[in-house]
From TrEMBL:
Name of this chain's protein: J domain-containing protein
Chain ranges passing through the membrane: 291-313, 325-350, 370-403, 424-442, 448-467
Regions of compositional bias (Low complexity) in chain numbering: 69-82
Keyword Magnesium appears in the UniProt entry: no
UniProt key word Transmembrane helix: yes
J domain sequence ranges: 3-54
Taxonomic source organism: Dyella acidiphila
Keywords, sorted A to Z: Chaperone, Membrane, Transmembrane, Transmembrane helix
């Protein structure tokens, strides 16, 4: 085992204290992060030399002959007198087994605390002097964090990645998954009560220039408790409460609802997010707006009832007639307001449904593709059969508007510059369509074929849109 002493620069008879001093001096120039192989060899020599010193036995020397003896002294042969007895080969002590799972759990526990103490704690642990243990611990730590993110600040995560050499593109970690992990852990860190101030500063939740702790607690409680219609009614009836809740939810997770911790109720989060999300007519948005419309209708009916009550008190109308007219007029107002809203909601849903890309998965794609020509053909057929233009005209022009909007919305992503020109022309096209439809109602005896012309424009627009997306209809059309 002289190689260990030679590597340490010592004599074979050196003691344990000399070995430790030599190892400490050589450790300054042989760092594990700079020379892993050299460090492992130095560490092995250190352990081997200590083991040999602790287990070595003293040499056996033959005693000298007694004084005054006349017996001739027998010269000692090298094999018996001067050669020491063979010593047992020193075996290195087994390295204690390191529990990687427990070590990874301890690393995560320290990382969730103060970020300034994390780096010093990691560098002081002797287990990480072994490159193999360090790599295995890094894999265990990241695997646990991906499976169950912890409340950890961005500074702590950066220090953790830097120590384990995972802060570069060649570390083997998916950058998108790492970005999602950063968002989740930072969000959980901000949602802890001691860091609510940082959260309110980030999302700018203020009232009178100060962080609004009361509003934060209310929003968090509303998103974490199960969804109830009583809470929906209270939120909708409070002026601006729904919009403020939507702004808070959007600022909290930037639209990444999956990043929210498990303490948030998923059904409640999905409902409030869709209720405030402009664009498609989703179920929550329809329910919230329907509730608003009903409230508006009842307010209008109440005002009408007050007017009829004043007329009754003035004596200009009998009591039974005033009550009957008030009830009839109130129901008519509520029904009219709700009916108008249902027409608007139906148009928004139909327009969104027709504007979906062809690549969108759908159970009945041909129903979406053939609705416009079917509706236009039915309207044109009724017109040719002599039906009233009040029935045939709206069907044709509704299909025309749907075809134009469908062509614009599905054409813009493929050719942005040309789509901008077409988008600038579409308002004038809509105005012309409205003017023509008004002429149909006012001058039914006009000789100009308005309905046939609208029918032809609708079919041409629909065919142009389908030709641009012919590859989705059948693969063989993609070659043409």
């Amino acid at each position: 085992m002289n190689w260990a002493f030679e590597l340490l620069g010592l004599r074979p008879d050196a003691d344990a204290a000399s070995i430790k001093r030599a190892y400490a001096q050589l450790l300054r120039s042989t760092r594990p992060d700079e020379d892993p192989e050299g460090f492992q060899r130095l560490h092995a020599a250190y352990k081997t030399a200590l083991a040999q010193v602790n287990t070595a036995a003293p040499a056996v020397v033959a005693p000298p002959p007694p004084l005054g003896s006349n017996a001739p002294s027998t010269p000692a042969t090298p094999s018996t007198a001067t050669r020491p007895e063979p010593q047992a080969v020193a075996q290195p002590r087994p390295v204690p087994t390191i529990n990687i799972g427990a070590l990874a759990g301890e690393v995560i526990r320290v990382a969730t605390g103060d970020s300034r103490k994390l780096t010093a704690w990691l560098q002081a642990r002797q287990e990480f002097w072994s490159i193999q243990v360090k790599q295995q611990t890094a894999q265990a730590v990241m695997q646990r964090l991906f499976q169950q993110p912890q409340a950890m600040s961005a500074e702590s995560l950066n220090a953790l990645l830097k120590f384990f050499d995972l802060d570069h593109v060649l570390s083997g970690i998916n950058p998108y998954a790492l970005q999602q992990l950063r968002r989740r852990q930072s969000l959980q860190w901000e949602l802890t009560p001691e860091h609510h101030y940082e959260l309110m500063q980030r999302i700018q939740l203020r009232r009178n220039g100060r962080p609004d702790q009361r509003a934060l607690q209310h929003y968090l409680a509303l998103l974490q408790q199960p969804l109830t219609w009583l809470a929906v009614v209270k939120t909708v009836l409070r002026g601006g409460a729904l919009d403020r809740l939507g702004h808070f939810l959007q600022a909290l997770c930037q639209g990444h609802l999956d990043d929210l911790p498990a303490s948030f109720d998923r059904r409640s989060v999905q409902f409030w997010y869709k209720a405030n999300h402009a664009g498609a007519m989703s179920g929550p948005r329809f329910a919230v707006n329907t509730l608003r419309v009903i409230v508006i209708g009842f307010v209008c009916a109440l005002l009408a009832s007050i007017v009829f009550a004043i007329s009754f008190s003035a004596g200009s109308m009998p009591g039974k007639d005033a009550l009957r007219l008030a009830s009839t007029f109130s129901f008519a107002i509520v029904g009219g307001v709700v009916g108008v809203w249902l027409m608007i909601a139906g148009w928004i849903y139909l327009d969104d449904w027709q504007g979906l890309p062809e690549s969108t998965a759908s159970r009945r794609p041909w129903l979406r593709r053939l609705l416009i020509p079917a509706l236009c053909t039915i309207g044109f057929g009724l017109h040719e059969l002599g039906a009233s233009d009040y029935i045939a005209g709206p069907m044709v022009f509704v299909s025309l508007f749907l075809a134009l909007r469908r062509f614009r919305r599905r054409y813009a992503p493929q050719a942005p510059r040309r789509a901008l020109r077409l988008r600038a022309m579409l308002p004038w096209i809509y105005l012309c369509g409205i003017g023509i439809s008004a002429l149909i109602h006012l001058q039914t005896d006009s000789d100009f074929p308005v309905v046939p012309a609208a029918f032809a424009v609708t079919l041409c627009t629909w065919l142009a849109d389908m030709w641009r997306h012919r590859a989705h209809v059948h693969p063989r059309f993609a070659r043409s």
